[in-house]
Design a protein that fits this description.
single chain; alpha+beta; Leucine-rich repeat, LRR (right-handed beta-alpha superhelix); Potassium Channel Kv1.1, Chain A; 9-stranded mixed β-sheet
């Protein structure tokens, strides 16, 4: 992965200034993500070797980034702040043994392993302020007691709210300040549950003589025998998983705990799903069994190891991260010439950087002249190279030939029939269809329709490219997989009649996400997207006594969310403080919630006219607020006084919509904005440069006519005329 940063000096009390790499835009959503390069313009006379501190600020870092020490060899400080970091392990800190400060505040870490700080002989400043810590023991600090610790902060966590600081260190402890590290350690053992040890998380495996090792697959020891009994008996089940051949009686709560996809299904956020059944078609029933059993036992049966790729794909589809992690380790442990391409394809499909890197290294070894490292992010080039060289004796060892065939190829220099000599892969289904008796289901159906008698055959079905099916692999079964029409990381969705729709990520637009877009101060929305703006452009703190924004906008529709500023991304609304601006039936409304009290200011005196620019100014102090629209002001306040005056806004600012809009806004809004947001300004600042401060976005364009040769369904007034002078 490549990141872009800004280089500058950051000052810490007592410590002094450090030359810092500041990263405000990233998307590290998979474990073992390796950072290859961090680009930016150094200050004059400086280089990567001068960097002492890296600071991930208000961006997406769900998993600890790997490879930082290789880019910045003299790193002394790592800060991951307001980034949604979910976990940290000893393995994450390998190579960072020389750092003095580790700062992971305002994240989602629930547990710290005992061996986290082993070999961290220079670490003296530590903060896990405002996480979800409830599983840890005093053992975590024992390896660094000899370091003369200056600052250790575990304030505002689920089970512990305390910290220690040396008298020479001036940074405050916001929780209970203790007098010694020993006192803090005693409090940890008193307040927190014991953590799961690293050796319980993954089994140690070694491959010898090409034989599969015995593996202990237990991930955690908190699952009771009762859970296993529920799996075995199906008692008290409330949902049925239906495959092609079997039905499984399972339990919504148990599935939802580990899968956000199941959670969405059960909350009726996905369409066409019966309330009491979920259908998993064209998936091997053994794979479904392994998948579902894991929810109840945290175990993977070693006898099913030949199906690991399919297990991983199903786990990824339903976002079961624990299962993905353990299966990924098994896959990488068993990487070889015969499966490297299939593993690489799987890793590319699910953006699994760690597994992709491991598979790519094996693929490189197949060529006499190793592939360049940069090709790892160009899988289509690799596939083309392999297809071009496959079966030839040029510079490539054919990974799909068995070893005897490969030796014959080298000894006799004879061509081979690639279909007849291809080994049937146990890990890849035929173009998304279950292979039955050598023929895929679609081919059998064609024979039945034509009246052709069914005959048994030992000829293996062809292994089609993804998205194709049929005896000749010439039938498109999934246009997204077959053609991969969405460019630049766009997300493809197959629509009825084999059409497709591309959701474009940050920086791209167009039917196929083929056009680059450089946002400045304006952004255009079509009702199906959003822009996540770094909150630091609006406010300096999450706790705010007063708030103020100005928004210049023009809309095409009478309903749509313009702005939401409240909870963190991905969380459903649960009563948190928030600010929102929306058009509702042609009326602009400003809604705010503080301390459980909510107020809506509707601006009835100035209607929102389509295709005309309007200027809205939002102001709030404590529980009172105002909404100015084109020079006219309406006022409002909460129905009851609030005990607190400060509003706590933990998330970033969403413009034009939000992911899972209805759930995110607590059913207040269901329509994204259709129109242009021309300017967003804090009350005491200038227009915000959206391109420089966007954390994530979906289907966002600039407010200019469509590129040449692309259809434009909007009229000429879409971008809005100036408001009347008042």
């Amino acid at each position: 992965m490549e990141l872009v940063c800004k280089f500058n000096y950051c000052y810490w009390y007592t410590i002094g200034s450090k030359y810092t790499s500041i990263i405000t835009s990233s998307s590290i959503t998979e474990p073992n993500t390796i950072i290859k390069t961090i680009n930016g313009n150094h200050l004059e006379g400086k280089s990567d070797k001068d960097i002492e501190e890296i600071w991930f600020n208000g961006t997406t870092v769900n998993y600890f980034p790997q490879g930082l020490n290789k880019i910045f060899p003299n790193l002394k400080t790592v800060i991951i702040d307001y980034c949604g970091l979910k976990s940290i392990t000893r393995r994450d800190l390998v190579g960072l043994e020389n750092i003095q400060m580790l700062w992971c505040g305002h994240n989602k870490i629930a547990s710290l392993p005992d061996n986290l700080f082993r070999n961290m002989n220079k670490l003296i400043y530590i903060s896990f302020y405002d996480n979800d810590l409830h599983c840890m023991s005093s053992e975590v600090l024992k390896p660094i007691l000899k370091n003369d610790l200056k600052y250790v902060d575990f304030s505002e966590n689920r089970s512990i709210d305390a910290g220690y600081r040396d008298s020479s260190y001036t940074l405050l402890i916001y929780g209970n300040k203790v007098d010694s590290v020993a006192q803090l350690m005693a409090m940890i053992d008193e307040k927190c549950d014991k953590p799961m040890k690293d050796e319980q998380t993954f089994s140690n495996t070694n491959l010898k003589d090409n034989k599969l090792p015995q593996r202990n697959k237990k991930l955690k020891d908190f699952k009771s025998d009762g859970f296993k009994e529920l799996w075995t008996t199906g008692r008290f089940s409330d949902i049925t998983i239906v495959t092609d051949t079997e039905k499984f009686k399972v339990h919504k709560n148990i599935l939802a705990i580990q899968s956000s996809v199941f959670t969405s299904i059960f909350e009726d956020k996905m369409k066409d799903r019966p309330s009491d059944e979920i259908h998993l078609k064209n998936i091997n029933v053994n794979i479904v069994t392994i998948f579902l059993k894991f929810f109840y036992t945290d175990e993977v049966d070693e006898t099913e190891i030949s199906n690991l790729l399919e297990v991983f794909a199903l786990a990824a589809k339903f976002k079961v991260e624990n299962l993905m992690s353990v299966v990924e380790k098994m896959i990488t442990d068993d990487l070889n010439d015969d499966n490297a391409m299939d593993v690489f394809k799987l890793a590319c499909r699910f953006n699994c950087d760690g597994m992709k890197t491991s598979a790519f290294e094996v693929i490189q070894s197949m060529f006499d002249e190793p592939l360049k490292d940069e090709l790892m992010n160009q899988p289509e080039v690799i596939f083309e190279s392999i297809f071009r060289c496959e079966g030839k004796q040029l510079n490539f060892r054919n990974p799909r030939l068995n070893r005897n065939q490969r030796n014959q190829q080298e000894d006799h220099a004879k061509g081979v029939d690639k279909i007849a000599d291809m080994i049937e892969s146990a890990n890849v289904q035929n173009c998304g269809h279950q292979i039955v008796g050598g023929e895929d289901e679609s081919f059998q159906l064609q024979k039945k329709k034509s009246g052709e008698a069914e005959t048994s055959t030992n000829v293996p079905a062809p292994i089609c490219r993804p998205g194709y099916t049929g005896r000749s692999c010439d039938i498109i079964s999934d246009i997204c997989l077959a053609n991969e029409p969405c460019e630049h990381g766009g997300i493809c969705t197959t629509m009825p009649d084999n059409n497709y729709h591309c959701d474009c990520t940050l920086g791209y637009t167009g039917e196929n996400c083929q056009h680059m877009v450089a946002l400045k101060t304006k952004a255009r929305f079509k009702g199906d997207g959003y822009l996540e703006l770094n909150r630091s452009t609006i406010a300096t703190s999450s706790s705010q006594l007063s708030s103020g924004l100005a928004v210049l906008f023009s809309t095409k529709e009478p309903n749509g969310l313009i702005l939401w500023y409240g909870q963190e991304r991905g969380k459903g609304f649960n009563g948190e403080d928030f600010l929102s601006l929306a058009v509702n039936d042609g009326i602009l409304e400003f809604t705010f919630r503080i301390d459980g009290e909510e107020s809506v200011i509707k601006h009835h005196s100035v209607p929102v006219i389509p295709n005309r620019r309007h200027i809205a100014i939002l102001k709030r102090t404590a529980n009172q607020a105002s909404l100015e629209l084109d020079g006219f002001t309406e006022y409002g306040e909460t129905a009851r006084p609030t005990e607190k005056n400060e509003m706590f806004l933990a998330g970033h600012v969403f413009l034009g919509g939000a992911p899972d809009l209805k759930r995110f806004t607590g059913e207040r809004y269901s329509n994204g904005f259709i129109g242009c947001i021309h300017t967003v300004e804090p009350i005491l600042g200038g227009a915000i440069q959206l391109g420089e401060n966007t954390i994530s976005s979906l289907n966002v364009d600039d407010c200019s006519p469509a590129p040449d040769n692309e259809e434009e369904d909007d009229d000429d007034d879409f971008f809005g005329t100036e408001p009347p002078v008042v």
